[in-house]
Design brief:
The complex is a heterodimer of chains A (about 170) and B (about 250). Chain A contains three helices and no strands. With about 170 residues, chain A is mostly helical. Chain B starts with 11 loop residues before the first strand and ends in a 5-residue tail after the last helix. The chains are: A mainly alpha (about 170), B mainly alpha (about 250).
Protein backbone atom coordinates (compact mmCIF):
# COMPACT_ATOMS: atom_id res chain seq x y z
CA UNK A 1 0.00 0.00 0.00
CA UNK A 2 2.75 2.42 0.99
CA UNK A 3 4.59 1.55 -2.20
CA UNK A 4 1.46 2.29 -4.19
CA UNK A 5 1.11 5.62 -2.45
CA UNK A 6 4.78 6.31 -3.09
CA UNK A 7 4.51 5.36 -6.76
CA UNK A 8 1.56 7.66 -7.28
CA UNK A 9 3.40 10.37 -5.44
CA UNK A 10 0.62 10.90 -2.92
CA UNK A 11 1.76 13.32 -0.25
CA UNK A 12 -0.76 14.61 2.29
CA UNK A 13 0.89 18.05 2.25
CA UNK A 14 0.39 18.33 -1.51
CA UNK A 15 -3.13 16.98 -1.11
CA UNK A 16 -3.98 19.67 1.44
CA UNK A 17 -2.33 22.38 -0.68
CA UNK A 18 -4.35 21.36 -3.73
CA UNK A 19 -7.50 21.33 -1.61
CA UNK A 20 -6.71 24.83 -0.35
CA UNK A 21 -6.11 25.94 -3.94
CA UNK A 22 -9.55 24.70 -4.87
CA UNK A 23 -11.21 26.44 -1.93
CA UNK A 24 -9.46 29.72 -2.72
CA UNK A 25 -10.65 29.47 -6.32
CA UNK A 26 -14.14 28.56 -5.17
CA UNK A 27 -14.21 31.58 -2.87
CA UNK A 28 -12.88 34.02 -5.47
CA UNK A 29 -15.15 32.79 -8.26
CA UNK A 30 -18.14 32.78 -5.94
CA UNK A 31 -17.47 36.34 -4.86
CA UNK A 32 -16.48 37.88 -8.18
CA UNK A 33 -18.00 35.70 -10.87
CA UNK A 34 -21.06 33.72 -9.75
CA UNK A 35 -22.79 35.95 -7.24
CA UNK A 36 -22.79 39.14 -9.32
CA UNK A 37 -23.83 37.34 -12.49
CA UNK A 38 -26.61 35.43 -10.73
CA UNK A 39 -27.84 38.65 -9.19
CA UNK A 40 -27.60 40.36 -12.55
CA UNK A 41 -29.55 37.58 -14.27
CA UNK A 42 -32.18 37.58 -11.56
CA UNK A 43 -32.49 41.36 -11.73
CA UNK A 44 -32.79 41.24 -15.50
CA UNK A 45 -35.41 38.52 -15.36
CA UNK A 46 -37.36 40.49 -12.77
CA UNK A 47 -37.05 43.57 -14.95
CA UNK A 48 -38.29 41.75 -18.01
CA UNK A 49 -41.16 40.20 -16.08
CA UNK A 50 -42.08 43.60 -14.65
CA UNK A 51 -41.91 45.09 -18.13
CA UNK A 52 -44.20 42.44 -19.56
CA UNK A 53 -46.58 42.85 -16.66
CA UNK A 54 -46.62 46.62 -17.08
CA UNK A 55 -47.22 46.28 -20.81
CA UNK A 56 -50.17 44.00 -20.15
CA UNK A 57 -51.52 46.41 -17.57
CA UNK A 58 -51.11 49.36 -19.92
CA UNK A 59 -52.85 47.47 -22.71
CA UNK A 60 -55.65 46.52 -20.37
CA UNK A 61 -55.98 50.10 -19.22
CA UNK A 62 -55.97 51.39 -22.79
CA UNK A 63 -58.67 48.93 -23.73
CA UNK A 64 -60.65 49.97 -20.70
CA UNK A 65 -60.25 53.64 -21.55
CA UNK A 66 -61.38 53.00 -25.13
CA UNK A 67 -64.42 51.15 -23.83
CA UNK A 68 -65.15 53.95 -21.38
CA UNK A 69 -64.83 56.50 -24.17
CA UNK A 70 -67.15 54.55 -26.42
CA UNK A 71 -69.62 54.20 -23.58
CA UNK A 72 -69.47 57.89 -22.73
CA UNK A 73 -69.88 58.84 -26.38
CA UNK A 74 -72.86 56.54 -26.70
CA UNK A 75 -74.40 57.98 -23.54
CA UNK A 76 -73.82 61.51 -24.73
CA UNK A 77 -75.36 60.71 -28.08
CA UNK A 78 -78.38 59.23 -26.38
CA UNK A 79 -78.61 62.14 -23.99
CA UNK A 80 -78.44 64.71 -26.77
CA UNK A 81 -81.11 62.83 -28.68
CA UNK A 82 -83.27 62.77 -25.58
CA UNK A 83 -82.72 66.49 -25.04
CA UNK A 84 -83.64 67.18 -28.64
CA UNK A 85 -86.80 65.12 -28.35
CA UNK A 86 -87.71 66.83 -25.11
CA UNK A 87 -87.14 70.26 -26.60
CA UNK A 88 -89.30 69.36 -29.54
CA UNK A 89 -92.12 68.22 -27.28
CA UNK A 90 -91.73 71.31 -25.12
CA UNK A 91 -91.85 73.54 -28.19
CA UNK A 92 -94.96 71.77 -29.40
CA UNK A 93 -96.58 72.14 -26.00
CA UNK A 94 -95.62 75.78 -25.87
CA UNK A 95 -97.04 76.35 -29.33
CA UNK A 96 -100.30 74.69 -28.39
CA UNK A 97 -100.44 76.65 -25.20
CA UNK A 98 -99.73 79.92 -26.97
CA UNK A 99 -102.36 79.10 -29.57
CA UNK A 100 -104.87 78.29 -26.87
CA UNK A 101 -103.96 81.46 -25.04
CA UNK A 102 -104.34 83.55 -28.18
CA UNK A 103 -107.69 81.97 -28.92
CA UNK A 104 -108.81 82.67 -25.40
CA UNK A 105 -107.62 86.25 -25.64
CA UNK A 106 -109.35 86.72 -28.97
CA UNK A 107 -112.54 85.38 -27.49
CA UNK A 108 -112.12 87.76 -24.58
CA UNK A 109 -111.67 90.70 -26.95
CA UNK A 110 -114.68 89.56 -28.95
CA UNK A 111 -116.78 89.27 -25.84
CA UNK A 112 -115.61 92.67 -24.69
CA UNK A 113 -116.50 94.12 -28.05
CA UNK A 114 -119.89 92.43 -27.95
CA UNK A 115 -120.47 93.76 -24.46
CA UNK A 116 -119.49 97.27 -25.49
CA UNK A 117 -121.67 97.01 -28.58
CA UNK A 118 -124.56 95.80 -26.38
CA UNK A 119 -124.07 98.63 -23.97
CA UNK A 120 -123.88 101.15 -26.80
CA UNK A 121 -127.02 99.67 -28.24
CA UNK A 122 -128.83 99.96 -24.90
CA UNK A 123 -127.57 103.46 -24.47
CA UNK A 124 -128.72 104.39 -27.93
CA UNK A 125 -132.11 102.80 -27.31
CA UNK A 126 -132.46 104.65 -24.02
CA UNK A 127 -131.60 107.87 -25.78
CA UNK A 128 -133.99 106.97 -28.54
CA UNK A 129 -136.73 106.40 -26.02
CA UNK A 130 -135.83 109.64 -24.27
CA UNK A 131 -136.02 111.48 -27.61
CA UNK A 132 -139.08 109.50 -28.63
CA UNK A 133 -140.96 110.56 -25.50
CA UNK A 134 -140.74 114.24 -26.57
CA UNK A 135 -141.55 113.38 -30.16
CA UNK A 136 -144.49 111.13 -29.29
CA UNK A 137 -145.87 113.86 -26.97
CA UNK A 138 -145.46 116.39 -29.71
CA UNK A 139 -147.09 114.06 -32.21
CA UNK A 140 -149.95 113.24 -29.91
CA UNK A 141 -150.35 116.93 -29.01
CA UNK A 142 -150.49 117.87 -32.71
CA UNK A 143 -152.65 114.99 -33.91
CA UNK A 144 -155.18 115.07 -31.12
CA UNK A 145 -155.25 118.78 -31.17
CA UNK A 146 -157.09 118.90 -28.00
CA UNK A 147 -155.15 119.85 -24.94
CA UNK A 148 -155.79 117.76 -21.95
CA UNK A 149 -154.34 118.24 -18.49
CA UNK A 150 -150.71 117.45 -18.10
CA UNK A 151 -151.36 114.52 -15.83
CA UNK A 152 -153.57 112.87 -18.44
CA UNK A 153 -151.00 113.46 -21.03
CA UNK A 154 -148.39 111.93 -18.83
CA UNK A 155 -150.65 108.97 -18.18
CA UNK A 156 -151.32 108.57 -21.86
CA UNK A 157 -147.67 108.82 -22.62
CA UNK A 158 -146.95 106.28 -19.96
CA UNK A 159 -149.46 103.90 -21.36
CA UNK A 160 -148.10 104.47 -24.84
CA UNK A 161 -144.62 103.71 -23.60
CA UNK A 162 -145.83 100.58 -21.92
CA UNK A 163 -147.50 99.65 -25.14
CA UNK A 164 -144.31 100.39 -27.00
CA UNK A 165 -142.34 98.21 -24.66
CA UNK A 166 -144.70 95.31 -25.10
CA UNK A 167 -144.36 95.65 -28.83
CA UNK A 168 -140.61 95.30 -28.56
CA UNK B 1 17.83 7.03 -29.24
CA UNK B 2 16.95 7.51 -25.61
CA UNK B 3 13.40 6.53 -24.78
CA UNK B 4 11.35 9.16 -22.98
CA UNK B 5 11.18 8.88 -19.23
CA UNK B 6 7.68 8.44 -17.92
CA UNK B 7 6.94 9.01 -14.26
CA UNK B 8 3.54 8.65 -12.63
CA UNK B 9 4.26 10.82 -9.61
CA UNK B 10 4.69 14.54 -10.11
CA UNK B 11 8.30 15.68 -10.20
CA UNK B 12 9.59 17.91 -7.45
CA UNK B 13 10.89 21.16 -8.88
CA UNK B 14 12.21 22.65 -5.64
CA UNK B 15 11.28 22.78 -2.00
CA UNK B 16 10.62 25.50 0.54
CA UNK B 17 11.66 24.52 4.09
CA UNK B 18 11.23 20.89 3.21
CA UNK B 19 7.86 21.42 1.56
CA UNK B 20 8.04 19.89 -1.90
CA UNK B 21 6.86 22.12 -4.73
CA UNK B 22 5.97 19.85 -7.65
CA UNK B 23 5.44 20.87 -11.25
CA UNK B 24 1.76 19.99 -11.00
CA UNK B 25 1.36 22.18 -7.94
CA UNK B 26 3.01 25.04 -9.84
CA UNK B 27 0.57 24.43 -12.67
CA UNK B 28 -2.44 24.48 -10.39
CA UNK B 29 -1.20 27.74 -8.86
CA UNK B 30 -0.92 29.23 -12.33
CA UNK B 31 -4.47 28.14 -13.09
CA UNK B 32 -5.63 29.58 -9.79
CA UNK B 33 -3.84 32.84 -10.50
CA UNK B 34 -5.16 33.10 -14.05
CA UNK B 35 -8.75 32.40 -13.07
CA UNK B 36 -8.62 34.72 -10.06
CA UNK B 37 -7.20 37.58 -12.12
CA UNK B 38 -9.78 36.92 -14.84
CA UNK B 39 -12.63 36.87 -12.33
CA UNK B 40 -11.36 39.96 -10.56
CA UNK B 41 -10.64 42.16 -13.55
CA UNK B 42 -12.89 40.90 -16.32
CA UNK B 43 -16.05 40.82 -14.27
CA UNK B 44 -15.35 43.80 -12.06
CA UNK B 45 -18.70 45.29 -12.86
CA UNK B 46 -21.65 43.52 -14.39
CA UNK B 47 -23.87 45.69 -16.51
CA UNK B 48 -27.57 45.15 -17.28
CA UNK B 49 -26.72 45.28 -20.97
CA UNK B 50 -23.86 42.79 -21.30
CA UNK B 51 -20.61 43.54 -23.09
CA UNK B 52 -18.67 40.90 -25.04
CA UNK B 53 -16.96 39.04 -22.17
CA UNK B 54 -19.93 39.31 -19.85
CA UNK B 55 -22.07 37.90 -22.64
CA UNK B 56 -19.85 34.83 -22.97
CA UNK B 57 -19.84 34.36 -19.22
CA UNK B 58 -23.62 34.75 -19.09
CA UNK B 59 -24.09 32.14 -21.82
CA UNK B 60 -21.85 29.74 -19.90
CA UNK B 61 -23.61 30.31 -16.59
CA UNK B 62 -27.06 30.04 -18.20
CA UNK B 63 -26.02 26.83 -19.92
CA UNK B 64 -24.80 25.42 -16.65
CA UNK B 65 -27.92 26.52 -14.81
CA UNK B 66 -30.18 24.98 -17.46
CA UNK B 67 -28.31 21.66 -17.32
CA UNK B 68 -28.43 21.70 -13.52
CA UNK B 69 -32.11 22.58 -13.58
CA UNK B 70 -32.83 19.51 -15.71
CA UNK B 71 -31.06 17.34 -13.12
CA UNK B 72 -31.91 19.09 -9.85
CA UNK B 73 -35.42 20.10 -10.86
CA UNK B 74 -35.45 23.73 -9.74
CA UNK B 75 -33.76 27.01 -10.55
CA UNK B 76 -33.15 27.95 -6.92
CA UNK B 77 -31.38 24.65 -6.24
CA UNK B 78 -29.29 25.11 -9.37
CA UNK B 79 -28.25 28.58 -8.28
CA UNK B 80 -27.38 27.25 -4.83
CA UNK B 81 -25.09 24.50 -6.06
CA UNK B 82 -23.74 26.29 -9.12
CA UNK B 83 -20.53 27.57 -7.46
CA UNK B 84 -19.22 24.10 -6.58
CA UNK B 85 -20.14 22.43 -9.85
CA UNK B 86 -19.00 25.30 -12.07
CA UNK B 87 -15.73 25.75 -10.17
CA UNK B 88 -14.93 22.07 -10.56
CA UNK B 89 -15.65 22.30 -14.26
CA UNK B 90 -13.66 25.48 -14.85
CA UNK B 91 -10.72 24.44 -12.67
CA UNK B 92 -10.39 21.01 -14.29
CA UNK B 93 -11.01 22.34 -17.80
CA UNK B 94 -8.40 25.10 -17.62
CA UNK B 95 -5.90 22.75 -15.94
CA UNK B 96 -6.37 20.21 -18.69
CA UNK B 97 -6.13 22.72 -21.50
CA UNK B 98 -3.13 24.50 -20.03
CA UNK B 99 -1.52 21.06 -19.63
CA UNK B 100 -1.29 20.63 -23.40
CA UNK B 101 -0.05 24.17 -23.99
CA UNK B 102 3.25 24.38 -25.85
CA UNK B 103 6.07 24.61 -23.33
CA UNK B 104 4.26 22.70 -20.63
CA UNK B 105 6.10 19.43 -20.25
CA UNK B 106 8.87 20.46 -22.62
CA UNK B 107 10.44 23.32 -20.71
CA UNK B 108 12.42 22.11 -17.74
CA UNK B 109 15.83 21.09 -16.51
CA UNK B 110 17.95 17.99 -16.06
CA UNK B 111 18.52 16.41 -12.70
CA UNK B 112 20.83 13.61 -11.58
CA UNK B 113 18.85 10.85 -9.86
CA UNK B 114 20.72 7.73 -8.79
CA UNK B 115 23.42 8.53 -11.31
CA UNK B 116 20.86 8.87 -14.06
CA UNK B 117 20.28 12.18 -15.83
CA UNK B 118 16.52 12.79 -15.83
CA UNK B 119 14.52 15.57 -17.46
CA UNK B 120 12.26 17.42 -15.04
CA UNK B 121 9.58 19.55 -16.74
CA UNK B 122 8.88 22.84 -15.00
CA UNK B 123 5.12 22.51 -15.50
CA UNK B 124 2.88 19.53 -15.87
CA UNK B 125 -0.89 19.24 -16.25
CA UNK B 126 -2.35 19.51 -12.74
CA UNK B 127 -4.74 16.61 -13.23
CA UNK B 128 -1.89 14.27 -14.13
CA UNK B 129 -1.06 14.29 -10.42
CA UNK B 130 -3.19 12.08 -8.22
CA UNK B 131 -2.84 14.60 -5.36
CA UNK B 132 -4.85 17.12 -7.37
CA UNK B 133 -7.58 14.75 -8.50
CA UNK B 134 -7.83 13.07 -5.10
CA UNK B 135 -8.12 16.43 -3.36
CA UNK B 136 -10.90 17.43 -5.75
CA UNK B 137 -12.65 14.09 -5.31
CA UNK B 138 -12.50 14.22 -1.50
CA UNK B 139 -13.75 17.83 -1.45
CA UNK B 140 -16.57 16.98 -3.83
CA UNK B 141 -17.77 13.91 -1.92
CA UNK B 142 -17.49 15.65 1.46
CA UNK B 143 -19.27 18.79 0.25
CA UNK B 144 -21.99 16.73 -1.43
CA UNK B 145 -22.61 14.97 1.89
CA UNK B 146 -22.65 18.28 3.74
CA UNK B 147 -25.15 19.66 1.23
CA UNK B 148 -27.25 16.54 1.72
CA UNK B 149 -27.18 16.87 5.52
CA UNK B 150 -28.06 20.56 5.23
CA UNK B 151 -30.94 19.93 2.84
CA UNK B 152 -32.69 17.07 4.63
CA UNK B 153 -31.18 17.18 8.12
CA UNK B 154 -28.22 15.32 9.55
CA UNK B 155 -30.32 12.50 11.03
CA UNK B 156 -32.13 11.82 7.77
CA UNK B 157 -28.90 12.03 5.87
CA UNK B 158 -27.06 9.59 8.13
CA UNK B 159 -30.01 7.21 8.02
CA UNK B 160 -29.18 6.72 4.36
CA UNK B 161 -26.02 4.91 5.49
CA UNK B 162 -26.80 3.61 8.96
CA UNK B 163 -30.24 2.16 9.40
CA UNK B 164 -31.47 -0.66 11.61
CA UNK B 165 -34.93 -1.04 10.10
CA UNK B 166 -34.11 -4.45 8.70
CA UNK B 167 -31.00 -6.46 7.85
CA UNK B 168 -31.27 -5.77 4.14
CA UNK B 169 -31.57 -2.01 4.63
CA UNK B 170 -28.66 -2.19 7.05
CA UNK B 171 -26.51 -4.01 4.50
CA UNK B 172 -27.52 -1.62 1.71
CA UNK B 173 -26.72 1.34 3.98
CA UNK B 174 -23.25 0.03 4.69
CA UNK B 175 -22.70 -0.53 0.98
CA UNK B 176 -23.84 3.02 0.35
CA UNK B 177 -21.35 4.22 2.92
CA UNK B 178 -18.52 2.29 1.30
CA UNK B 179 -19.61 3.57 -2.10
CA UNK B 180 -18.96 7.12 -0.90
CA UNK B 181 -15.29 6.18 -0.63
CA UNK B 182 -15.47 4.32 -3.91
CA UNK B 183 -16.76 7.57 -5.44
CA UNK B 184 -13.63 9.37 -4.27
CA UNK B 185 -11.44 6.67 -5.79
CA UNK B 186 -13.36 6.53 -9.06
CA UNK B 187 -13.54 10.32 -9.34
CA UNK B 188 -9.83 10.77 -8.76
CA UNK B 189 -8.56 7.85 -10.82
CA UNK B 190 -10.86 8.55 -13.77
CA UNK B 191 -9.58 12.09 -14.17
CA UNK B 192 -5.99 11.21 -13.33
CA UNK B 193 -5.98 8.22 -15.66
CA UNK B 194 -7.41 10.11 -18.60
CA UNK B 195 -5.16 13.13 -18.31
CA UNK B 196 -2.03 11.12 -17.51
CA UNK B 197 -2.74 8.74 -20.38
CA UNK B 198 -3.19 11.72 -22.65
CA UNK B 199 0.15 13.12 -21.61
CA UNK B 200 1.85 9.78 -22.19
CA UNK B 201 0.13 9.47 -25.55
CA UNK B 202 1.40 12.90 -26.60
CA UNK B 203 4.92 12.13 -25.40
CA UNK B 204 4.98 8.81 -27.29
CA UNK B 205 3.51 10.39 -30.43
CA UNK B 206 6.04 13.22 -30.29
CA UNK B 207 8.84 10.68 -29.69
CA UNK B 208 7.86 8.44 -32.59
CA UNK B 209 7.02 11.11 -35.15
CA UNK B 210 7.64 14.65 -33.92
CA UNK B 211 6.21 16.29 -37.04
CA UNK B 212 2.45 16.42 -37.60
CA UNK B 213 1.72 13.06 -35.93
CA UNK B 214 0.94 14.55 -32.49
CA UNK B 215 -1.55 17.00 -34.03
CA UNK B 216 -4.64 14.75 -34.07
CA UNK B 217 -3.73 13.58 -30.60
CA UNK B 218 -3.53 17.20 -29.45
CA UNK B 219 -7.00 17.78 -30.84
CA UNK B 220 -8.14 14.62 -29.09
CA UNK B 221 -6.63 15.85 -25.82
CA UNK B 222 -8.44 19.18 -26.11
CA UNK B 223 -11.64 17.19 -26.45
CA UNK B 224 -10.74 14.73 -23.65
CA UNK B 225 -9.82 17.63 -21.37
CA UNK B 226 -13.25 19.15 -21.91
CA UNK B 227 -15.08 15.85 -21.56
CA UNK B 228 -13.30 14.91 -18.34
CA UNK B 229 -14.07 18.31 -16.79
CA UNK B 230 -17.69 17.90 -17.85
CA UNK B 231 -17.86 14.34 -16.51
CA UNK B 232 -16.45 15.39 -13.14
CA UNK B 233 -18.89 18.32 -12.89
CA UNK B 234 -21.86 16.30 -14.14
CA UNK B 235 -21.22 13.44 -11.72
CA UNK B 236 -20.97 15.83 -8.78
CA UNK B 237 -24.22 17.41 -9.98
CA UNK B 238 -25.91 14.00 -10.07
CA UNK B 239 -24.55 13.08 -6.63
CA UNK B 240 -25.85 16.37 -5.25
CA UNK B 241 -29.27 15.69 -6.78
CA UNK B 242 -29.32 12.27 -5.10
CA UNK B 243 -28.13 13.55 -1.74
CA UNK B 244 -30.43 16.56 -1.32
CA UNK B 245 -33.65 14.54 -1.53
CA UNK B 246 -35.13 12.25 1.12
CA UNK B 247 -34.38 8.58 0.93
CA UNK B 248 -37.37 6.29 0.31
Amino acid sequence: MSELIHNFGIDWRLLVTQAINFFILLFILKKFAYKPILEMLRKRRDGIEAGIRMKKEAEERLRHIAQEREKTLEETRKESLAILAKTETAAKDLRAEMLADAAQKAEGVLNEAKKIIGEEKNKMRDEFFKDAAGLVRLGIEKTLNRMTPEERDAKLIQEALVELKTIR
Amino acid sequence: MKTPHIQIAAEKVFDIFGFPITNTLLMSWIVLLLLSVAAFFLFKKFKPVPAFLQNIWEVMVEGFLNTMESILGSRSKSEKYLPLVATIFIFVLISNWLGIFPGVGSVGFYEEVHGERLFVPLFRSAASDLNFTLALAVITVVLVNIYGARAIGLGHHLSKFFTFKNPIAFGVGILEFISEFAKMISFSFRLFGNVFAGEVLLVIAAFLAPLLAPLPFLALEIFVGFIQALVFAMLSMVFISIMVVEHH
